[in-house]
Write a structure and sequence with these properties.
The chain has about 200 residues and is α+β, with helices and mostly antiparallel strands. The protein contains seven helices and five strands. The protein binds FE2/S2 (inorganic) cluster (FES) (2 copies).
């Protein structure tokens, strides 16, 4: 499974693997290829907060968020890049965190569902729209759906129902709440643009 994640990581966030390696080399870190048990020091900015972690270089960003930082909003559905339940933002771009190595996020900003609205404040317009349109049933896919939907609007892909369906196609919902999800995105998109 780890091998698959390593092999697939460059497909998820093209261009991030090389800079992460370059940053690691510049910092004089141990080469895990010569010392399999070595840990790497990784500096992440997670939801605006600087975090330093000592990690197995094979650790996924998803496992690091959930198990290392107790941020359990991002869900592990398939762990293979096929369901979107683990979607988070890396430098503002949506990624499947199950296929992103934590070391690829070194020196970068990660935003999870826990960080899109101020604690105790108003919900993000996309969160509110999901509630208003009953865009969930069990809720397991919902954090990933919302993170993908926010990114979709920022990418400029909320122009039509067809376009929204296409650009949300990486996020699966076993409960079949797709009609509500579409309605929520159509509702939230103009509110996000005005904000
Ligand atoms: S858990 Fe990452 S895509 Fe399914
Ligand atoms: S709300 Fe249950 S999987 Fe989407």
């Amino acid at each position: 499974m780890i091998g698959a994640a390593l092999a697939s990581s460059s497909l998820v966030q093209p261009g991030t693997a090389a800079p992460a390696r370059a940053q690691g080399a510049a910092a004089g870190r141990a080469n895990p290829g010569t010392n399999p048990g070595a840990k790497l020091t990784v500096n992440l900015t997670v939801n605006g907060e600087a975090r330093q972690l000592s990690l197995d270089p094979r650790a996924s960003l998803l496992d690091t968020l959930r198990e290392g930082l107790a941020l359990t909003g991002a869900k592990k559905g398939c762990d293979h890049g096929q369901c979107g339940a683990c979607t988070v933002h890396l430098e503002g771009r949506r990624v499947a965190s199950c296929l992103t190595l934590a070391v690829q996020a070194d020196g970068r900003a990660v935003t999870t569902i826990e960080g899109i609205a101020p604690e105790g404040g108003e919900l993000h317009p996309m969160q509110q729209a999901f509630i208003d349109h009953d865009a969930l049933q069990c809720g397991y896919c919902t954090p990933g759906q919302i993170m993908a939907a926010i990114a979709l609007v920022r990418e400029g892909h909320a122009g039509s129902p067809q376009e929204i369906r296409e650009y949300m196609s990486g996020n699966l919902c076993r409960c079949g709440a797709y009609a509500g999800i579409l309605a929520a995105i159509q509702d939230a998109a103009p509110k996000m643009r005005r904000a």
